[in-house]
Specification:
It contains four helices and five strands, in the order βαβαβαβαβ. It is globular. Helix 1 links the parallel strand 1 and strand 2. A five-stranded parallel beta sheet has the order 3-2-1-4-5, with helices on both faces. The chain is an alpha/beta fold. 33% of the residues lie in helices and 22% in strands. It has a single domain, classed as Rossmann fold (3-Layer(aba) Sandwich), CATH 3.40.50.
Length: 138
């Protein structure tokens, strides 16, 4: 992950929380991102990382075991899988609870989901410059 959709492209990546929000197959770029984070150990890892992944059906959690193992290995990582549409208000409250509203936020998934999450975060005062998006849908 060396392109624009990479935590490495953010100057303060090791100082702010990393928040990844995926919808469906939008998890794909995050798989590479978190594989890189896993290998980096303590190098340029953010202080904490949160992954929210929503799918339409539990059978689509094809990489769930990878993220659960990573969560067990690194106490700074938390994995939040869910089935159905993301509740943007609940998502924002989770970011407040985990002190991640000032984090670097990455969105990837269907356009409708990304638009709703982006708007909700901005409506709550999250700076647009903190949000990086990548369209990845069928």
């Amino acid at each position: 992950p060396f392109g624009v959709f990479s935590y490495r492209s953010i100057p303060d990546a090791d100082k702010r929380p990393l928040v990844a929000i995926a919808g469906g197959i939008g998890i794909t770029p995050f798989l590479a991102m978190f594989q890189a984070l896993r290998l980096e150990l303590a190098k340029k890892r953010p202080p904490k990382a949160l992954l929210y992944w929503a799918v339409q059906d539990p059978k689509y959690f094809v990489h769930r075991v990878f993220f659960e193992r990573f969560e067990a290995e690194w106490e700074g990582f938390s994995f939040h899988p869910s089935v159905g549409m993301l509740n943007t208000e609940h998502l924002y409250q989770e970011l407040v609870r985990t002190e991640a509203t000032e984090g670097n936020i990455f969105l990837c998934g269907p356009p409708k989901m990304m638009k709703a999450v982006f708007r909700a975060l901005c409506a709550h005062g999250v700076e647009k410059k903190r949000i990086t998006t990548e369209r990845f849908a069928v």
